[in-house]
């Protein structure tokens, strides 16, 4: 099994020092940067648009993983690709013509992913597995950073990993929300490929140590 990758979520960084924050996690060994886009409609909060994404893309060589928590995803795909997004996920609950949106992301030059809320059944991904590069399982209800990981999600993640292995073994499984060193220890052996972590990285002084510990490379 390959090493789990860590995607720090900029939602938890100090935005007043965003360039330093991005450089600090890049230097600390982050694999990707996770960029949470909220529209105040699909989720009850507002965050960043393509403008900030473009600024971030100019100061890092890390792949940008854009998580669209929005209802009008189609209108945002190309602006985010132009702003440097390498991977774009949309919510299965928010998008009406999911197949079309996935194709649009791919045609725009980014890797398409589908995000799924805690209460949405695994079966809603049945037709999607062969179409995407990754599936992002929310382990909190989307909208805010710093929430507690929902423990009942572990059983769902086991079933998602089994479905992935059966239907599309190349698809990455991403877990997002409330990830910390303790639950990362449980998540890694389930076949999760990428851990998104906001608070567990940006809330720590020593980012290299925080990332290493999420990967299971414990250091003193
Ligand atoms: C929640 C976001 C997550 C979140 C992760 O809506 O999608 O990416 O910011 O942050 P933590 O790790 O603090 O839960
Ligand atoms: Zn996210």
Which SSEs are present, and which pair or pack?
Elements: E1 5-8, H1 18-27, E2 33-38, H2 50-59, E3 64-69, H3 73-82, E4 87-91, H4 98-108, E5 111-116, E6 134-138, H5 153-167, E7 172-176, H6 181-187, E8 194-197, H7 199-202, H8 207-215
Parallel strand pairs: 1-8, 2-3, 3-4, 4-5, 5-6, 6-7, 7-8
Helix pairs in contact: 3-4, 6-8
Bound molecules: D-xylitol-5-phosphate (DX5) and zinc ion.
Architecture overview:
This protein is 35% helix and 19% strand. Strand 3, helix 3 (73-82) and strand 4 form a beta-alpha-beta unit. The protein has helices spanning 18-27, 50-59, 73-82, 98-108, 153-167, 181-187, 199-202, 207-215; strands at residues 5-8, 33-38, 64-69, 87-91, 111-116, 134-138, 172-176, 194-197. The chain has an eight-stranded parallel β-sheet. The protein is built from eight helices and eight strands. With 220 residues, it is an alpha/beta fold. The chain has one domain (5-215): TIM Barrel (Alpha-Beta Barrel), CATH 3.20.20. Helix 3 runs parallel beside helix 4 (98-108). It binds D-xylitol-5-phosphate and zinc ion. D-xylitol-5-phosphate binds next to strand 2, strand 8 and helix 7.
